[in-house]
Design brief:
The chain is mainly α and 69 residues long. It has one domain. The chain is 88% helix and 0% strand. The chain is built from two helices and no strands. Helix 1 runs antiparallel to helix 2 (38-68).
């Protein structure tokens, strides 16, 4: 069971890292003063916030695994 737990934790930690990396990329574009298209910047900012929510959900899953498996 411990092996499965560790495998799950690694998987979800990687997933969380991907969500955070995506969040950072979208926010970088949204805040780039050299990028003129405001509609795209607004869309990227919204996506960045979505990615943060995803990262928060994955963090909760990691907590559940840590506390229950």
């Amino acid at each position: 069971m411990k092996e499965n737990r560790e495998k799950l934790l690694r998987y979800f930690q990687q997933m969380k890292g991907l969500e955070e990396s995506s969040r950072d990329y979208y926010m970088k574009v949204a805040l780039d003063p050299n990028f003129d298209n405001q509609e795209i910047k607004n869309t990227f900012e919204r996506i960045s916030k979505d990615e943060q929510r995803h990262a928060d959900i994955v963090a909760k899953i990691i907590s559940l695994i840590n506390n229950n498996i």
